Amino acid sequence: MPSTSNLQPSTVFVVAGEVSGDIYAAHLVRELRRRDPSLSISGVGGPYLAAAGVSLFLDSSLWGTIGWLRAGQFMLVRKLLQIEREIRRARPDLLLVVDFAAFNLRLAERLDGLVPIVYYFPPMVSVRRGDRARKVARLGMRLLAAFRREAAAYETAGADVVFVGHPAVDLTRTRWTPRQARAHFGIPEDAPVIGLLPGSRVAEINTHLPVMIRAAELLQRKSPELHFLIPLASERFRSLINKAVSSTKVPVHIVTEPYDAMAVSEVIVTATGTATLEAAVLAVPMIAVYRLPLLSWLIAHYVLTIRRAALPNILSGRDIVPELLQDRMTPEAIAAEVRRLLEDPARRRQMQADLREVASDLGTPGVVQRAADEVFAVLDRRRVAATSQGRIR
Fold it and tell me: How far is the C-alpha of 39 from the C-alpha of 77, rounded, in Å?
């Protein structure tokens, strides 16, 4: 629990670099502020952290890149050095880093020993070659793992880790009944719906959405009753998505309620990543797609120990969700997989049952609260250590 003394408020610097991290960090910040309104929280993030009351040092909402080797990485190095200088200047009581693995790990390495660090959503290590878990463990951060297998891998490596669960368990909630959602989206009650989720990075949208739209056109030729939903990962992507769909005659609805969009869909086509877990919580049948630049794909094959990409498949260790990766991600292949699911209700029901099983292993409700408990525990230890050394401000 937060300190109730008359000492100066604790200061937290948070770093989240992509849309999903921004969202999950914002929910955690709100819980921290609910418990201790005196907390001073600044940092790096996007519109969700800003709306949660974080004073943004830098806006990271458009930092998302795709792959390991891109020109944008040079920009990120400059941003990293900026952030490092600010943290060294401000000396917050706690650095809270959220996801955004390559960036936040490098930042943690450069600040090792300067401030206590809590890593919410530490990088996945159970699927990688090498000793990344031990390298992370040596940094002495408090790791808040979203997956049991990751917590176990880090514990084996000697890391200071606790399994808190995945916040999708708490946050993946619909606003309306399916009938209300259809009315809101302007979709007839009896029209089958396909969700299209190209990803939450600019490069992902540019790479995946044109292929998805072409697949939608192929599907609608044989099934003109189909409607398609594209939920916005962020309002900042609206113009980009509008441009991508402007030339198609397929009935595409761009919406701002991702979970309701998933819930009314018979099938979704989604980029691998967080959305696949959110769909699992909602038990929505899906097809997972992804395409990397060739060199990045070759690096991924070298670094990773598995060939699965969708999180439900990785976590279950089996092929629950069809995956169309790289050259297999074509409009024809996507349309064919969607059609197979639409025409096979028994297969959809089995996939839903398997996805519910995956979701049941993501932890019990209260994930955000447990994460907040850990943040305050580190802050309290910091306060006690400072008091014992006579360094209370």
Answer: 29
Helices 331-342/202-222 angle, 10° precision: 60
User: DSSP state, 327?
Assistant: G
Which superfamily, per CATH, for 171-360? Glycogen Phosphorylase B; (3.40.50.2000)
| Domains 11-165+364-388 and 171-360 in one fold | yes
Q: Which residues contact 142 (CB under 8 A, 6 or more apart)?
A: 116, 117, 118, 119, 160, 161, 162, 374, 377, 378
Report whether 232 contacts 238 (CB < 8 A): yes
Pairing type for strands 252-255 and 267-271 reads: unpaired
In angstroms, the CA 260 to CA 177 distance is 8
How far is CA 257 from each of CA 166, 178, 200, 261, rounded to the nearest angstrom? 20, 12, 14, 6
Task: Return d(Cα 199, Cα 182) in angstroms, integer.
Answer: 23
CB of 335 closer than 8 Å to CB of 215: yes
CATH 3.40.50.2000 fits 11-165+364-388, yes or no: yes
Q: How far apart are CA 230 and CA 198, in angstroms?
A: 8
| Residue predicted with more confidence, 387 or 133 | 133
Within 8 A by CB and 6+ apart from 22, the residues are 16, 45, 46, 47, 48, 49, 60, 61
- From the list 266, 351, 331, 263, the residue with the least C-alpha distance to 275 is 263
pTM: 0.89
Residues with Cβ < 8 Å from 215, sequence gap 6 or more?
269, 331, 332, 334, 335, 338
Q: Where are the domains of the chain?
A: 11-165+364-388, 171-360
52: which 2 tokens? 């949660």
Which residue is it, tokens 């989604």? 270
For residue 185 the two structure tokens come to 């989206």
Q: What is the pLDDT of residues 289-345, one digit of tens each?
A: 999 866 665 555 545 556 788 999 999 999 999 999 999 999 999 999 999 999 999
| Distance, CA of 332 to chain centre | 28
In the numeric block, the tokens 């292929």 are attached to 211
Q: Which value, in Å, is the radius of gyration of the alpha carbons in the chain? A: 22
Residues 142-147, mean pLDDT to the nearest whole number: 98
- CA 264 – CA 174 distance, rounded (Å): 10
